[in-house]
Amino acid sequence: GGEPLVKQMLMGGGKTTVISPILSLMLGDGKSLVVQMMPPALLEQTRATLRSAFSSIIRKRVFTLSFDRSSDASWELLDKLRSAVAHRGIVLCTATSVKSVQLRLLEKLDTLRDARRKHHPSMERDVRALG
């Protein structure tokens, strides 16, 4: 079935060095976006570990999604995510980045829905990119 399973592993149990690369290989099929979310303190270490793991025999690109409330949603972001899918890459991010993307989308949708608010003609196109 399509139901996700969640397992908890102790610190030092091989999540970053063993499980993460194996799951990335299994899930990166060229159709799905593989995203690994982690606390900010682990982002650099995880990026270095995965880049090292996927730099020799089996190559995979490791992307980092950095987005905050002041970031502008752009087609460049969408292109980066599409490239990650097409090249079977891995996107690393924090929960803050994911929530910020979601909030930016909601803000833009709210602006588009309110006829009293002025918005740039390209905003609808940008919202389509995020959605």
Taking pLDDT < 50 over at least 5 consecutive residues as the criterion, the unreliable ranges are: none
Number of domains: 1
Hey, roughly how much beta strand do the residues contain?
A: 5-15%
Number of alpha- plus pi-helical segments: 5
Radius of gyration: 17 Å
Topology, number of strands: 3
Gross morphology: elongated
Output mean pLDDT.
83
Q: What is the chains' assembly state?
A: single chain
> What is the H/E order?
HEHEHEHH
Side by side, the strands of the main sheet go 1-3-2
InterPro entries: DUF3638
Pfam families: DUF3638
Protein name: DUF3638 domain-containing protein
Domain DUF3638: 6-114
Q: Could you describe the 3D structure shown?
A:
- The chain has one domain (15-130).
- It is 50% helix and 8% strand.
- It is mostly helical and 131 residues long.
- The radius of gyration is 17 Å and the shape is elongated.
- The model has no long low-confidence stretch (mean pLDDT 83).
- α1 crosses α2 and α4 (95-113) runs antiparallel to α5 (123-130).
- The longest helix is centred in the last third of the chain and has 19 residues, at 95-113.
Please describe the topology of this protein.
Elements: H1 15-27, E1 34-37, H2 40-53, E2 62-64, H3 75-86, E3 90-93, H4 95-113, H5 123-130
Parallel strand pairs: 1-3, 2-3
